[in-house]
Amino acid sequence: MPAPQPLRWGILATGMIADLFVRDLILDPSTRKVSDVKHEIKAVASSSSADRAKKFIQDCKVPEGAAAYGSYEEVVKDNNVDIVYVATPHSHHYQNTMLCLEAGKHVLCEKAFTTNAAQTKRLIETAKAKNLFLMEAVWTRFFPLSIQVRKFIEDGNLGAVHRVIADNSFGDDVETKYGTTHRMINMDLAGGCLLDLGIYSLTWLFQTLYHTLPPPSRQPPKVVSAITPYHATGADEMTSMILTFPSAPGPAPAGTPDGSTHPAHGIALTNLRVATDPDGHNSARPAIRIQGTKGEIQVDGPAFRPRVWRFIAAKSDGDNAKGQGEPPNVEEHVCDIPGHGMFWEADECARCIRDGKVESEVMGWEESVVIMEVMDEVRRQGGVVYPAKIESLEYPLAL
């Protein structure tokens, strides 16, 4: 058996998401039955000080040899770094990712990719011109559960898919927990539930109604949405979206004019004040419902880190409205996560770079752009406008 291909990482930022990611990277790949790639942390940078980066390295128990830097510029100059993980706020993704690309580094950038689609397109253009790998870090896409659900749909087991409902909401006392400066509601940091939480609801719509189609059949959805702003800052605290996908998985109903396709609705919900899982014990299951002519897939939350999904078969012709006839046909699947679950997206990066690819087929550039365009339209309809400097295409630009 050949030795696993190492991928050498630099980490931009030292917050919670970077902590989770790094702890996953240093886990033994064999615990998730991976033997072809492995990961090495070579550098960590904090924008505030090298001491903070050193403490992060110590707290995460990173193996010896990782450099600690007090600026992002130092990481991208480090010759021991192949790829940089950008874990800064949404507002800074464009500037930070461009810094890495201009320095010749591959990039895994946290979602939401940028603050708008124009920025995402510019990053893609840069990566393509420099022949560098670039991917939005939508970690949920790479879970075995997500792969199983997509295959179940692609194999026709759900029939024609007509509706998907996905919710990712936190029930918080917004004034007490977030106040007026926390990144979740800070407009200077592109705060609000849409880019932070709603991206997961949209992920489930897109990976089931869009990604399961052959690329030539994928068409961007039409969007109708509503936003409620947080009174203290103007960031969105409640956002509801209805997306109409012109073409969806499965056969078109008999008599359809062109006989080859059918539309589907995707309902994506996100909220800071009410929760998908109000008691924290999954009593309100499921967070995602994927409905087709042969039955329904339910995915228990949270939408970003699911472990359980089930298929409920549609009643047969012999069943009546009172449930008499055949017994219920429910298949439940439990998918273990040997860690937090962020290593699977890192494994994808390692394999793509090893194989000379600049983008992932699972989370490709075109799909990232379409999702950003949807969020742009949602913000337009809801009147949410970020400060001009964080939506700018100018680079470099101090934020």
Low-confidence stretches: none
The first-to-last residue Cα distance is 48 Å
Summarize the biggest pleated sheet. Answer: 8 strands, mixed
Summarize the amount of helix as a percent range.
Answer: 25-40%
Mean pLDDT: 96
Structural class category? alpha/beta
Please tally the helical runs, counting DSSP H or I stretches of 4 or more residues. 11
- The ordered H/E elements are EHEHEHEHEHEHEHHEEEEEEEHHH
Radius of gyration: 22 Å
**C-alpha geometry:** globular
**DSSP strand tally:** 14
Bin the strand percentage.
15-25%
Strand order, largest beta sheet: 8-9-10-7-11-12-13-14
Walk me through the structure.
The chain has helices at residues 16-25, 50-59, 72-76, 90-102, 117-130, 144-154, 174-177, 193-209, 343-354, 365-382, 388-391; strands at 5-12, 37-45, 67-69, 83-86, 106-110, 134-137, 161-167, 222-229, 236-245, 264-271, 288-292, 295-299, 308-313, 330-334. The longest helix is centred in the last third of the chain and has 18 residues, at 365-382. The chain is 30% helix and 22% strand. It contains eleven helices and 14 strands. The model has no long low-confidence stretch (mean pLDDT 96). It has 399 residues and is α/β, with parallel strands linked by helices. The protein is globular and about 65 Å long.
